Every structure is written in structure tokens, then in C-alpha cells.
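chain below, 174 aa
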Amino acid sequence: SVAMNPAGAITAVWDDWTGNQSRGIFAQNFDADGAAGAPYQVNEQTGGMFFEPRVAMSERGEVVLAWPRESIIEHRFYMDVFARVFEPEVLFVRGDVNGDAYIDISDPILTLLFMFDIMDLYCRDAADVDDNGRINILDPLMSLLFIFTDASPPPPPFPDPGVDPTEDTLGCAW
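prediction:
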């Protein structure tokens, strides 16, 4: 089964039957450049036969996978259905709030507009320039200092796109 969101992200899911034995449910993500990361095992359960997985994807890239499992226990047939939701790993550049691949005056302005509830941001992690897990007045200030002076650059992911190396609740959904 294959699913694609409006941004073009794709996830494929399959059941692995190697040597006539169910090995589990696996998935692979793809982007415009091809495979994005390695295939990964979806199921955490063991035993029984896993088969016919299905996949759906939201506009943000959340992947929903569902699959049945058949088991025979003490001469009785059982069927279970399992599902998992995976959040996408979104790549971004810290400080590039509008996602145009440049850090310029528009980025701290967008952060200020967000702070004053004038607009929302697609990637709040990019606006968290000091990477403290919060967006406050220091973030646009640090951006301006980086743009107009020889101040230190933002922490990773910078200057190349990457995932946020620190845990927070801000998120990113290009």
C-alpha cells in the first residue's frame, strides 16, 4: 500500500514473508529525491501472521499504518488489528522561518508577527533561533544580530537543513 500527501512525501508499507514465514510489517518513506532514510519495522508485536498492511498520510505528513494479525492459540483462531501513527521527520534550517533557504530580514519579522498573534508559522522550530524550546523576543533579536553583525550563527540545524537535535513541543510542518 502507498500513500502520498499534497507536498509529495510518500510512504510505502508491506508485509515481509521471507522463507514462508511472516517477518513483520515494514515501511519506507520517499521524497522528491528518492528514498528518505532506511526502511523501518512498524510492528512491535511478535508471533502470528502479519499481512495486508494499509497506509494513509495527512497533509502534514503524519503516517497512519494499520494491519491485521492472525494467530492460532490452543486450536482457536484469533484476529487482531493494530495501528500506529508516525510523525514525520521534517528538515529545516534554524532561523529560516519562511523556508526560502535564506536568513534575511523577513525571518525575524515573521517571528514577531507570530509572537503578536498576527499569523501562525509552519515551522516554529526554525523561529526558535536560540533552541531553548520557546519562541520569545530573544529569537528575532538573535536573528537580527546574526544578519547585521558578526554574531554567532544559530545552533544546528544550521547552515544545512536537518532535524531538530533537541526535544521540544514546537514542531515543523512545511
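Helices lie at 106-115, 124-127, 138-148. The first helix runs from residue 106 to 115.
thats it, cya
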